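Thread: zinc ion complex, take 2
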Amino acid sequence: MANFEFWNDGNTPLHPASAPDFVPRPQMEQMQLHRLQVMVRRAYENVPLFRGRCEERKVTPDDVKSLADIARLPFSVKSDLRDTYPYGLFASPLDDVVRIHASSGTTGKPIVVGYTKGDLEVWENVITRSLAAIGVRRGDVLHNAYGYGMFTGGLGLHNAQAMGVTVIPVGGGNTERQIMLLRDLGITVISCTPSYFLHILDEAAKVGLDFHSLPLKYGIFGAEPWTEEMRQRIEEASGIKAYDIYGLTEIIGPGVAMECTAQSGMHIFEDHFYPEVVDPETGEVLPDGETGELILTTLSKAATPMIRYRTRDITWLNREVCACGRTLRRIMRVSARSDDMLIIRGVNVFPSQIEAALMQVDAAAPHYQIIVTRENDLDRMEIEVEIRPEHASDEIKQMEALRLRMSQAIERITNIRAKVTLVQPNSLARSEGKAKRVKDLR
Ligand SMILES: [Zn+2]
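Output below.
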């Protein structure tokens, strides 16, 4: 049984906002049901799209009598936000909306979400609990390298100031300056995408800066899927602890779920976000422990409530009480998005499988690109992999052996034979936002 008042070292007080992280499940479920009923009624009365879908299914807010009844409600999907652009899903009048964020779609209009004052307080609350879960507290200095602006990453993590953390709103880009700040400002926490942190490490190495010599202790990495192997690489190369954070603009931004010091799954802040996992094909709800698509319902969001939002993220829910004492269910590492899945010669392949395979081969740098083409009706997959600088001058024979080991590792994991091409260090494009791993030219 966890001690609710103290951090798991037994001496340091836990941030008071963390109390809901430790409540017994029945108490949590009672709160969830009450909030769900209020939320469904709010969406039904204010969002015509949701009401119309409920009417088609002949369900009303009165039919939600238990948490299991959520399965009777219709799903919502990303295109709903585009189709009703800009304010069609808002359940609050603009008078009550104090912030707008947007996520850039790959085509056409962005998706737009709103926040009331209360919604911003919820965001502050879940970011505080996220950071408290990894041991960050007042006195820490956060280098926030997520992009500011309408993207939720920057202003999302910026909420850390509410718990007394010193926030440096660096934003993305200008890596040279980022390195200078990391060296000079006594920074103890960094937040950015994992691929951008690797880029910072590469650039720092060029100017002879060893991250082990810095006071930096924690990294908060999210906004793109990453693997356990990538975590090991980051932790070894920098001496920090690397933690996964989960969120999406449609729900609130970063802070929907966060790892704790146990590093074994991300706790969902279930008093604000109700999770389900469903079969991505049939939409049928799966029991905890089974893998499928994560569905999220906001339980407190006033401006843009989302009922049963299909995240496209593939994961499973773990309801065992965590080593940290938190009773919040965990989503296990999101290593795949159903959107990212490639179908190659009829076989499902995820970029994360390629990454895991490359990292089994010691010299594989984590910068790679997957190129899919079709020749004579046959799919071909080519993986361009950057060799690490220390191997750049290896002999051809050694290179050939390396290439072979990589293509064997890929075949073992995916059952697909891929052509592996080794390319010079730093020759693949670097992204300061989300890494683009796949070029599908079919
Ligand atoms: Zn935990």
